[in-house]
Specification:
The chain has about 650 residues and is an all-alpha fold. Helices cover about 75% and strands about 0% of the residues. The longest helix has about 50 residues, at about 595-645. Residues about 1-5 have low confidence and may be disordered. The chain binds protoporphyrin IX containing FE.
Length: about 650
């Protein structure tokens, strides 16, 4: 039996082709072993009094749910381990076999997702599969409901993963297939119990993070075991890299699981429900998995001691527990959560935005009104934490890092937290003027602070370099900043057009309403405008590594042109006489807003007003850069003149003499 570092014998490699699917079978079997009896106990498969669609669908949802989650995990695991963790080596078939296996599990994932969609439709329509006209009804109505639309998007994305995993063979190809597979998981986050309950956004964020953590963690471990016979000496470094990823997954799964669970409890009595007992069971399994992770680190990685098969044995036992947790999870997702107090959720704002109407806007509201948006909050905290870790690493090795850059980065993210979780974010959902405050701060104020924090320089100076041609964080970052895509969008003119074009495109198309009504729209709007703002500011004043900078005078011209266009945008709103997203604002009918058009015109003033200050700062910084580059040029010319006895002046005078003679 091969140990952690010994080469697998040819006999082992050949008979592992069948055996290599054993870990997948272990995960599936362990999950089903727990899911089926638990589902009978928790009521997940109980016959419905009204609109019951039969045992095939009720029990099918459990079995297909396990197949779905297991196949998704293994697909993501194989593509991510193959694309990012496994060293390049003589055995290029490592990547090949990871891709081929991932294509197979992705087929299972796609089929399971499609069956889940049909079963959900049966449940949603209260029609058993055998009902005459079921198929017609399915095709006519499947796009009409959010839940089914998300499930259909998942099926389409997973089919794309099948095609990609089946065709790519390069490291980058596998990495992109891995990214697509992770993307295909996200629609699932909208299909959990969070549905249309209060805290919907928190639940979707939590489930998204949960699924990402679980699939990388469980799928990554299974991929390691499946590829082990081909890894030979590379197994140790691959296990070390996986272990770092697994630690982050452990934290993400625990945190997101608890965050989701807390959306499903109103008071202590709810903790006695079968839903919560399943959650406690998962928490216990999580603790056991924590022990496994710790043991792997201590016994297998740190000591490097390896009795024959020690890693494989420990990992296989860990997969049994992961399977069990997955089985409990599938049952949990089918078990009715405790009924929450939904009184007061009848106001139109909740129906349209998923949030209750905020109290009337007063001066104190700017500091007192908050609604945590976990996705944006976690993004900011993660960005601040990573940056601080980089600064500490620099300091520890005796390198200096600018304190002002650190402070600016932190201020940038604190502003981001305030505008997405505080009053601008809360009122920006129902009030056009406050939406504009949030929007302008996101696009103009936050990026200036973040760009001056020079995060890419810090990252490239602190992230470890991979020496085996694999894609670590540093390699991915370098590939992005030096890509043709970055060179194109960081061109000041392109960045300026994107900056202004996005504004006009967003407000004068249906995108505004989509961002106000849907969670996805809100997320896409926020990150799009943050990135567009960041790219524009970076193209003007960024000092981080990246595409060549335009001469300062040209940058100033681009800035002034964009400023003029932006002022025009503000003016158009200030003088506009027709309402943007009229249906939305009229339907939510916020009682304390007297005149919607006046509020919109105020939004125009804000767009113009808030836009001025950051633009002024940008203009000053570009001018400062201009002066500095002139100074640098003057010094360079002086040094040159010192070195070559001012040959340039002599040549110039010579030319003047020739012209005058
Ligand atoms: C502290 C530990 C954990 C807690 C509190 C927790 C909690 C939850 C909650 C509340 C859900 C949503 C269920 C619903 O839709 O109502 C969920 C889903 C899920 N959990 Fe966990 N979880 C934990 C650990 C784990 C672990 C260790 C795994 C597997 C290794 C796991 C796998 C999953 C999966 C696959 C789903 C999605 C189920 C589906 O929709 O098919 N969880 N979890």
């Amino acid at each position: 039996m091969a140990t952690l570092t010994q080469q697998p014998t040819s006999a082992e490699t050949s008979n592992s082709s069948g055996m290599r699917w054993l870990p997948v079978a272990v995960l599936g079997a362990s999950a089903l072993t727990l899911a089926v009896p638990l589902a009978a106990w928790s009521g997940a498969t109980a016959e419905l009094l009204l609109g019951d669609v039969g045992p095939l669908v009720r029990w099918g949802m459990i079995v297909v749910g396990v197949l779905h989650d297991a196949a998704a995990a293994v697909t993501v695991g194989l593509l991510v381990v193959g694309g990012f963790l496994v060293p390049e080596g003589r055995h290029s078939d490592r990547r090949e076999s990871a891709a081929r296996a991932a294509a197979l599990t992705a087929i299972v994932w796609a089929l399971a997702a499609a069956v889940k969609l049909v079963f959900s439709f049966a449940e949603g329509s209260g029609q058993a599969l055998s009902t005459p006209g079921f198929i017609d009804n399915f095709f006519v109505n499947v796009l009409g409901i959010d839940l089914f639309r998300y499930q259909l998007i998942e099926v389409i994305l997973v089919i794309a993963v099948v095609l990609m995993a089946g065709s790519v063979r390069t490291r980058n190809g596998l990495a992109w297939a891995g990214a697509l597979a992770v993307g295909a998981l996200m629609p699932v986050a909208y299909t959990g119990h969070s549905g249309d309950a209060e805290g919907h956004e928190t639940a979707v964020t939590a489930l998204g993070l949960h699924l990402l953590g679980v699939t990388l963690w469980a799928g990554g471990l299974i991929a390691l075991l499946m590829l082990r016979p081909q890894l030979g000496k590379a197994l140790k470094i691959t296990v070390e890299r996986y272990s770092t990823m697994a630690l982050w997954c452990f934290i993400a799964v625990g945190f997101s699981g608890v965050l989701f669970a807390l959306q499903s409890a109103d008071d202590w009595s709810d903790l006695n429900s079968s839903y919560w007992l399943l959650i406690f069971a998962k928490t216990a399994l999580m603790a056991v998995l924590g022990w496994f992770g710790w043991t792997q680190r201590r016994r297998i990685i740190d000591r490097g001691v390896d009795k024959p098969g020690a890693f494989a044995r420990l990992a296989t036992s860990e997969i049994v527990v992961m399977g069990a947790a997955m089985g409990v999870a599938v049952t949990l997702s089918r078990t009715p959560p405790p009924l929450l107090d939904e009184s007061g959720l009848s106001d139109p704002a909740f129906a349209l935005t998923g949030f209750r109407s905020p109290p009337p806007l007063e001066a104190s509201s700017w500091l007192s009104v908050w609604e945590l948006n976990w996705l944006f909050l976690l993004t900011a905290l993660f960005a601040m934490g990573l940056y601080l870790a980089g600064v500490i690493k620099m300091r520890r090795r005796g390198d200096r890092w600018s304190a002002s850059a650190t402070i600016l980065w932190m201020i940038g993210w604190l502003i981001f937290i305030y505008i997405t979780n505080g009053a601008p974010g809360v009122y920006g959902r129902v009030l056009f003027s406050m939406h504009m405050v949030m929007h302008m701060a996101l696009m103009m104020a936050v990026p200036i602070f973040l760009v001056l924090g020079t995060p890419i320089t810090l990252a490239l100076r602190t992230l470890p370099k991979r020496k085996d041609k694999t894609l670590g964080a540093r390699e991915v970052l370098l590939a992005v900043v030096h890509s043709r895509y970055a060179a194109f969008i960081a061109n000041p003119v392109v960045a300026g057009v994107l900056f202004f074009g996005s504004l006009v495109g967003f407000y004068w198309s249906g995108a505004l309403e989509l961002a106000l009504r849907t969670h996805t729209g809100h997320i896409l709007m926020t990150f799009h405008f943050l990135l567009v703002g960041y790219t524009f500011v970076w193209s003007l004043i960024g000092t981080d590594p990246g595409p060549a900078k335009w001469p300062a005078p040209l940058r100033l011209i681009v800035l002034l042109a964009t400023l003029a266009a932006h002022a025009f945008f503000g003016l158009a709103l200030m003088q506009g006489t027709w309402l943007l997203a009229p249906e939305f604002f009229k339907t939510i009918d916020i009682v304390w807003v007297d005149d919607l058009l006046v509020d919109q015109q105020l939004g125009g003033t804000i767009a113009w007003g808030i836009g001025e200050l950051p633009t002024m700062v940008l203009a000053l910084l570009v001018t400062k850069d201009w002066l500095a580059s002139d100074e640098r040029e003057a010094k360079r010319t002086d040094r040159q003149a010192d070195r070559d006895d001012d040959a340039e002046l002599a040549a110039y005078n010579e030319q003047l003499k020739r012209m005058s003679s």
